[in-house]
Amino acid sequence: MDTARIGRGELEIIVSERNTLARSLHDLGMGAWFGGSLMGAVGLNGVAREWEDAAAGDRIASTGWAKWTPVNGLAIAAHLAGAASLLASNMYRVEHQRGVGASSAIKTVLTGAALAATAYSRAMGKKLEMATSTDPDKAAGSQHHPASMEDAERQLRWAQWSIPVLTGALTVVSALQGEQQKPVEQKAGMMRKATARLGMG
User: Fold this and answer.
1) pTM exceeds cut of 0.90
2) d(CA 22, CA 80)
3) How confident is the prediction along the chain (201 residues), in pLDDT tens digits per residue?
4) How far is Cα 62 from Cα 44, in angstroms, rounded to an integer?
């Protein structure tokens, strides 16, 4: 963890404990979340669309996404655990280094949006999975959902594509935060924040 403190009129950069486990959980979880959703949107859905029997293709895609869901859930949990730990370790920088609070807020909003898109995608996918099932009971159960199959398919495609877009943006913000942790960036950011506070006073 890189922290910075202001004392005796100058900035001192202090390198303390490592956050290897938290960073590993954060990055591996994000990589799986982004990569799995992109592969599904491009590869799995692409193969399903080329299937001669449209219903069979939808059923195959739905089954594939359902198989991926538990792994994706673990990836998301790992990412959130790592992100929370890193945020807690860098609260001093969030408060005192200019730009870190803003990037953290943007990252939080993007994470919430990606989680919402993932949950919505799974809900629409479940409807499609039930509707294309060879089990009559499951197929009948899908009729209780308010959205039509056409609407569900369209909404599902939008949701599935929004996940890699949002998680890709999260990766970019994480890269920015990595740059903000460089000693020179910490020093400049904290000096600007301290100057702004003195000016306000």
Assistant:
1) no
2) 10
3) 444 444 444 444 444 467 899 999 999 999 999 999 999 999 988 888 888 787 788 888 888 898 999 999 999 999 999 999 999 988 888 888 888 989 999 999 999 999 999 999 998 888 877 766 665 555 555 555 545 667 777 888 899 999 999 999 999 999 999 888 888 877 876 787 777 767 654
4) 9
